[in-house]
Amino acid sequence: MKAIWNDTIIAESDDTVVIENNHYFPAESIKKEYFKSSETHSTCPWKGVASYYTLEVDGKENVDAAWYYPEVSELAKTIKGRVAFWKGVSVVQ
């Protein structure tokens, strides 16, 4: 699977986990040069507290377009150490 934004591959892996129609990529599969930490957090009742990344590709920003769970609940242990995307990021094979 590939995550693409602004015509650039920002993550690529054959080992994604799909939960709630989102592909969670292993953290080591993301291209870190495109990711900036964000101060944004949100809470999922069963997964835990999510943290976000803002994407920056070729001078364009996509604020909070990637998220991950630094600490996951027992129910969500399959996504520990993984990153998912939204806000116009395409995930394709």
Automatic annotation (TrEMBL):
- Where in this chain does the record put each DUF427 domain? 1-87
Alphabetized PANTHER family for the sequence: DUF427 DOMAIN PROTEIN (AFU_ORTHOLOGUE AFUA_3G02220) (PTHR34310:SF5)
Protein name according to UniProt: DUF427 domain-containing protein
**Which residues belong to the signal peptide in this entry?**
none
List, alphabetically, the Pfam families matched: NTP_transf_9
Q: Domain of life of the organism in this record?
A: Bacteria
Q: Which organism is it from?
A: Flagellimonas algicola
